[in-house]
Structures are given as C-alpha cells and as structure tokens.
Specification:
Blueprint lengths: L8 E5 L1 H10 L6 H10 L4 E5 L9 H14 L3 E5 L3 H10 L3 E4 L19 H13 L3 E6 L3 H9 L4 E5 L1 H8 L4 H16 L3 E5 L4 H8 L4 E6 L1 H10 L1 H18 L1
Parallel strand pairs: 1-2, 1-8, 2-3, 3-4, 4-5, 5-6, 6-7, 7-8
The protein binds 1-deoxy-D-xylulose-5-phosphate (DXP) and ligand LD2JLWAY.
C-alpha cells in the first residue's frame, strides 16, 4: 500500500527583491510588501538572508519582516553567517528559525555548504544558544555524509541541503550523481532524527523533483521566484510553485 508523504512547506526567500531595490537606493520595491504578497499567495514561511555586507536585505528589513511575520502568524527563517554580529541580531529578534550559512564577501551567491566538521565546537555553542532563545536552528550544508553526521552530533534540529550544484548540473543536462547524493543525505539526516529542508537555485522542475523525496519537509526558494515574478507577477509565481510542489508530493 502506498503511504502518503507528509506535506511539504514552501519558504519564500525575498532577498532579491532587495537586490533590485538596492540597485537604485530608496525604498522600492519593498521586500516586506513582497513577503506579504507571498504569504497571500500561499507561502508557508518567509526566508531572508542578512549578509555581512548587506548587499540585499538590511537590518531595517529584518525589523519589518519580523513584524509582518509575527502579525500574520507566518514563520520567519533568518539566514545568517556564524559571526558575533549576526548572533547578536538573532538573539535580539528571536526569529522562528535561524539557518546558519557559510559566507564569503567575494562570492556572488552562497556557493557551498557550511563546514560543520571543522567548525564543530564553535557551531555547537551557537546552535545551543540560538535554540535556547527559542529559534529552530538549521545548518545549510552540502549533501555530504560527514557534514550530516556532524550536524546531528552538535545538536542541530534541522539541516537544509544545498541544492545549487545539482540545479546547475541539471541546467547542463546532467545531475544524476548530485541528485543521488541529495537523496542519500536526506535519508541519512532523517534517520539521525534531523528535519530535512532543501534549497538554492530551485525552479519549477527541480523543485517538483526534490519535493518527491520523502524526508524533505521544506523548500526555500527565492531567486527563481523573484525572476519569474517579472513575467507573471509574484503571487502567480508563488501560487504556481505551491501547486507544483504539492502535486509532486501527492503523486510521489
Ligand atoms: C543561503 C542561500 O541559500 C542563499 O540562496 C540566500 O538565501 C540567497 O542569498 P545569496 O544569493 O546572497 O546567497
Ligand atoms: N536557502 C536557500 C534559499 O533561501 C533560496 O535560494 P535561491 O532560491 O534564492 O537560490
């Protein structure tokens, strides 16, 4: 008998609304307004990455997004590097979720996963502190068995698997090996008691494919949706993504 998969959540990342705003300065387009529209269109959560260089989301955006998410009862997932500055900000705002990500100033986007194996001691302290403040703590990692094991060892509640390398390979007509690694990492993390999320570079097709993996409970998607919004509008893009991943899950 086929056992139905548990539902999958869609977290909409609104960073790149801020990228467009910041290209000219000023206040338009407003990522908080985009978050409100995403919620109206069916987003289960809002994700925002406050980078050290503030290249997209700013501290003021985090205040606005925190207020919006609190008043609309939608979880805010704050992505941040494991620095003292970001630790202070997370402890001040106490978002529903914090996702610790690797960050390099010179990178164009988040290129790899967090090295939990090497940073084990420092990260363990940060994970405990953020969890103690009430945030659900997630580690953004590559689909690597050592990183999955280390994430469980240091007490993370969630891992988010970096799907960027797979999505790039798919665009080049390949991706089987990367997808197999993601599926294996998702199973391993689930067996270790971690909640499993995935994200980075997903579009309608790759999101549908990864949504079929049983252990995956949340997808965080941004850049593609904001790009698609230029053509069909943000509510339509989010609504279609919600439908695509829901149908993929139901048919798996
Ligand atoms: C952490 C991550 O996956 C990124 O996609 C982020 O959310 C978007 O921001 P950047 O493109 O600046 O990395
Ligand atoms: N953590 C991944 C995320 O939030 C969105 O990534 P992208 O879809 O903007 O590449």
């Amino acid at each position: 008998m086929k056992v139905a998969l548990e539902p999958i959540r869609l977290g909409v990342n609104i960073d790149h609304v801020a990228t467009v705003r910041n290209a000219r300065g000023g206040a338009h387009p407003d990522p908080v307004r985009a978050a409100q529209l995403a919620v109206t269109a069916g987003a289960d959560g809002i994700t925002a990455h406050l980078r050290e260089d503030r290249r997209h989301i700013t501290d003021a955006d985090i205040i606005g997004l925190s207020e919006l998410c609190r008043s609309s009862g939608v979880p805010l997932n704050l992505e941040m590097a494991a620095t003292d500055e970001m630790r202070g900000i997370a402890l001040r705002h106490r978002p529903h979720a914090v996702c610790i990500v690797p960050e390099r100033r010179e990178e164009r986007t988040t290129e790899g996963g967090l090295d939990v194996v090497s940073g084990r001691e420092r990260l363990a302290g940060l994970v405990a502190e953020l969890a103690g403040a009430g945030s659900r703590v997630s580690l953004f990692i590559a689909a690597d068995p050592d990183q999955v094991r280390a994430s469980a060892d240091i007490g993370a509640q969630v891992v988010e698997l970096h799907t960027g390398a797979w999505c790039e390979a798919v665009r080049e007509g390949a991706g089987e090996a990367e997808f197999a690694a993601l599926a294996a990492a998702a199973d391993q993390a689930h067996d270790l008691g971690l909640e499993v999320h995935a994200g980075h570079g997903l579009d309608f097709d790759t999101a549908a494919q990864i949504a079929r993996l049983r252990p995956i409970r949340e997808l965080n998607i941004g850049h593609f949706l904001i790009g698609e919004a230029v053509f069909i509008g943000l509510e339509a893009a989010v609504g279609r993504m919600r439908q695509v991943i829901g149908e993929a899950r139901a048919g798996a």
